[in-house]
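User: Second chain of the day. Same drill as before.
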Amino acid sequence: MPRTVHPERHFTHRVGWLRASVLGANDGIVSTAALVVGVAAAGTERHGLLVTGLAGLVAGAMSMAAGEYISVSSQADTEQADLARERRELIDDPAHELGELTAIYRARGLDDTLARQVAEQLTAHNALEAHARDELGITEALSARPVQAALASAATFAVGAALPLLLALMVPPTAVVMTVSAGSLLALAGLGALAAGAGGAGRLRGAARVVVWSALALLLTAGVGRLVGEPV
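Assistant: Same format as last time:
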């Protein structure tokens, strides 16, 4: 009987761009919505809301891009330094490195003979790749990609930030606080559920944790805007 091929779906290959994209979109919505709600609560007119929102969008997108690029570049530098050190060790003391690989497989449950055989075969195939994956935890799917992370964060921040800004421009100034807050929380709930589903996690939990923290941010900035906007 022919064997039926069972397709498997995994999500680890999405980690790099998914993390940056979700972070960018979430931060774009939350920070811009909170900014708009705060200045609206202080009694700012429509033109002031527009200037504040656009400034927050541009500054936030560039900040996200720079932050992601710097942080992920640091990760990439660390990975490359580890690989370079491992490459030297493989040249200087291959027997010791083979022993390290054998010990790793033994610790994972293989008997001594099989662990040695696996280590020898993987070393013969691609020693650096074997040590990068099994000793250092560096794989192609999870390796750092600074440019990808920076672009994903900046683009998704701008898209996310555009939502509360558009909502603020569509309603009278007196309705901005409630409209932007409600619309942003609804969008954040959908984003949280979508991100959780894309990563293979529970959608409800993903939506709930985003909404709770975002609602707190909106509440605090609205309070600050109301306090500063009132004569003291």
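Helices lie at 15-41, 46-92, 94-107, 112-134, 146-170, 176-198, 203-229.

User: Great, on to the next one.
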